[in-house]
## 1
Amino acid sequence: MQKSLLKWAVTIGSGVVIAIIPPPDGVAYSSWLLLAIFIATIVGSIVQPLTGSAIVLLGVTATAVFGVLKPFDALKGYADPVVWIVLSAFFLSIAVIKTGLGRRIALLFIRALGKSTFGLSYALIGTDFVLASVVPSNGARNGGIVIPIALSVSESYDSRPDDGTAGRLGEYLMYLLYQCEVVIGATFLTGHAGNFVMQKLANENAGLNVTYFGWLAAAIVPSLVSLAIIPAFIYRFSPPEIRSTPGAASFAREELKRMGAVSRDEWIVIGTLVGVIFIWTMQGRLHSIDPSIVALSGIGFLLLTKVLTWPELMGEKNAWSTFIWYGGLVNMATALGETGLTKLFAQTVAAQTTGMTWMMALAILLVVYFYAHYLFASVTAHALAMYVPFLMVTITAGAPAGLAVLALNYFSTLSASLTHFGTTPGPIYFGTGYAKQSTWWKIGFIASLINIAVFATIGTAWWKLLGWW
């Protein structure tokens, strides 16, 4: 009870503190009050006296109750196409898991690569990599497919979290898979749902539309380098006691035999995912259909073919919870940007970089942005709170818009490596009981240095070659 009261005190107090401070010259009090509500919502999403979605719903309601936004404006975030893409992403994830397609892909990788611990880890990484190209829910990919298989294999080698055998295999896999998931999440626009929000913010504030293949093309080289270095680092930092896993390949073969041939529903899901991505990539060439309508059309096709049923979609609590979360926060962040407060913040911070070269200013600002994620339990919340101000600051400092956008896009997701609560799969991996928090944070910090170094050197050189700056 006392802990809950403290969380409420922190949540409400953060907004009250802002609200009672006189707004800067030229800033209307209603705009200042919107900032107070937004900050209280972000803080509440972190400390969670209620679930994050419930806190956002309260924040949306508060903007109308206090007259900051008209009811229509307070609720219009739920009509934003980006929010419907996120909802569709969760529904597509249901189909991948329900039909067994995701599990089949994982088993095929394990059968091919799983004879050694290192090979097994890359089989599971490869599974996540392939699924991330079409399934934007990192929680569904990992919680529904990768983690259950990793747990099954660990237990088959007598590695369990509660009897002193975690170090045989399971502990290593949990550290490794999470850190690689963070990189994979940054690789694809569909790597996690928050990437669509960053795509929208970049388009609205810098005039740059990073398409599906544009995002992938810019990320693929530095991401593959990171995915080569990080497993080797974790293998040395927290090595598994078991180095050979021939039983994993045998396990995969037996499971694939049990599953039989690819089913009709699996083929339909494959065709739907390929079709959705193809139509996305043809926007502006063959058609002008919004990506959200394309995604919803894919869901409609899965309903018509009875791969999915309406009750299944209605029962997907995480999808609807995320819908409430995204719609409310995206709208508040957009409304806040329209007040001019983010521009004022950018000008104030940019003044502190006077005299610096734009490269030095960009480097400092990106490091601050990256490690601020220690304070966030969500990549999306981090981006909504800080992406636009930092984007404007870096551009004001003279950084090329393309370079600033790509750096912030990838750093937003890569920063989730720091903690065990940095993004949705983190609590799932940590909740298996294999990992130690102190070791997790050490690995996360070192992995962050690796990712920053790779994307700041190889990444920026690659983006220059591609013509982004």
## 2
Amino acid sequence: MRVSTVLPSVLMAVSLVGCHTPPAAAPADVMPDKGLDASQTGNDEAYRQIRIFTKTMMLVRQNYVDENKVSYSNLISAALKGMLQSLDPFSQYMEPSAYKELKEETQGSFGGIGIQLGFKDNALTVIAPMEDTPAFRAGILSGDRIVEINTNQTGKMDMRAVIGSLRGDPGSKVNIKILRGREFKDYALVREAIKISSVKGTRMLTPDIGYIRVTEFSLSTATALQEALDKLLTNRVKGIVLDLRNNPGGLLVSSVQVSEKFLPRGALIVSTRGRDTSRQQPPATAGGSVHYTDFPVAILINGGTASAAEIVAGALHDNKRAILVGETSFGKGSVQNVMPVEDGIAARITTARYYTPSGVCIHEKGIEPDILVPVTTEEWQKVMLMRRDIETPGSLDARDKPADFAQITDRPLDRAVDLLKGVMIFQGKK
């Protein structure tokens, strides 16, 4: 199984078969033969580095004070984790438990607090809380920086350790401390079985304009989106708002399947570029049998829009199929391949960066909206409350509603609706 992810978001294994003696090292004052085959030079260097690694491991095995910590499996596992962690925040050596959790997540369910994380400015940052999860209900926001998990400082943890600390059995507790602006906040959260519903809130905003919110990109997202579109089409929809705010991303294939529904057949969706140009994957283009190209689309984005969600926003924008409204997206433009190794062990390796149809790499830059509508933290919290009340009637207690609840408006959504109305008038559809 190979899963390509753009993750809200790793292995070179050394095998010793039999016993091979590496070439002896040349004295320091002997220059290498200029005509030496390049591949042989590379092999010699690999042998030398493996020899250094092996010698260091044996020194640790023989001398470290705590003998219980220096088994071969512990040392090699730690070395692999460190090697991959040094590459980037998203590459990861995955032991069976971590690999199983990843497969469960991409299939739409796992145990934890419901949060997507990444590194921004070298700090562990919330890309977005997932809908209807402990983190979401507690009020954790996109952009919050997690500084402690169960009193352990996250600055000393790699991503695998972070995920391992946050995941757990339903009903168990985890304490986290976040930094929001200049204020620290403590949260005591109870883990739940997280089941992701990737498409929510489908409804008509006006007699002509429909609304669909995509919360993440999993294996089932394209199917759920098609069901939402079918529902709106029965109402003779003439324009659609696609809400990708706080969507942390997910599977690359899912973003392609979603994008192609709004693009003409053959339109470029995304291209990826890795190190080895001879093994480049062909650009992804719109396939499928259904293409909705006869109504305008507005896409809502913000700082929590990342990864696969940015692919969709970039594809529809660059193909002039959508207007982007809101705030600059997160800027996670790298692609990871999950490659099984053996016995449930896998390597998640950053193999490429993706480029929008216009050739732009948004990694660490994000996508800027056509229409900028800044939203304060306080305003966004109120919008999420209002949205929850609309999508899940009765889920909010009266005590959860602020005094001005009836006056809350979603300004980016209102602006998107106004834009679509103008486009439809211009196109003679209204």
## 3
Amino acid sequence: MKARIAVLGGDGIGPEVTDSAVRVLAAIAQRQGHEFQFVEALIGGAAIDASGSPLPSRTIDACRSSDAVLLGAVGGPKWSDPGARVRPEQGLLELRRVLGVFANLRPVRTLPEMLDASPLRPEVIRDVDIVVVRELTGGIYFGRKSRTAHEAEDVCSYTAQEIERVTRVAGRLAMDRHRHIVSVDKANVLDTSRLWRTVVERVLTQEFPEVKFEHMLVDAAAMHLLRRPTSFDVLLTENMFGDILTDEASMLVGSLGLLPSASLGSDRVGLYEPIHGSAPDIAGRGIANPIGTILSAAMLLRHSLGLEDEAASVEAAVAAALRGGIRTADIATPGGAVAGSQAATDAIIAALSA
């Protein structure tokens, strides 16, 4: 297979972790006889410094002409002035809009060899296997905004059509798993959540009658994710709630650095990125955990390129490297050996070859 992959390193540790993922993708291509072309482009603060825009037109063109987009992270202290007219995060939000990716898949799966990395008890988190389906282009992040010296407004809005399409993604996903969806909202307070609840119930009842579903308020969901995480299968949520809950869920596996994500739309071009941020405090030190980005590359192979066996090989190689004792600083046990980004990537590539 021939494929063109846009690589947007972004800011902070973003270029470091995307470099690791590209190395793994190149190793898979060589092993399986594929031809992957990697096209680098700017986004976020790096793009602002170079062009004044957080998402230059050249980057948009590179993404639109590619089969998939691999992203590192955006933002950092250099561009953190809340009063700034142009901010790195605007580039990420605009990229999601340009690509039309409205469903963000965030798998949360614990591995036996990593149970000691979580602050929760092993018996609570053993066998956790959740996929969060987060609506990505609506809600408060994309609503009308205004600000004066004494007042600010961020409007949360949703249409039925926006809720319908992400619910169908969750429904199809649940059909291939354990056929159970928990839909998260705040319907006791918010009208957007009341619409969310009504539309979710209609779509699942009419189009996915085999799927069992329940509604859960977001505060209860936050509690039960830590209290009984193995009770969740597919968790469907609006934009901001999903952003917060998946950061919380990262503690089930031990670190933000371990979790991948895929942002999908109706087109074949998906956007793949770890859920962590740019971590400017460790940028350039070679100690960032590349696993979340490497697992995002596995999702890229699966969802945009249709290479299921290759995706499974990458995931198995990550598990083998962890089983072999590879630990970056964020998941290292006290007194245990610590591997840098390159050493961790080397171990995963070696496991691929094995």
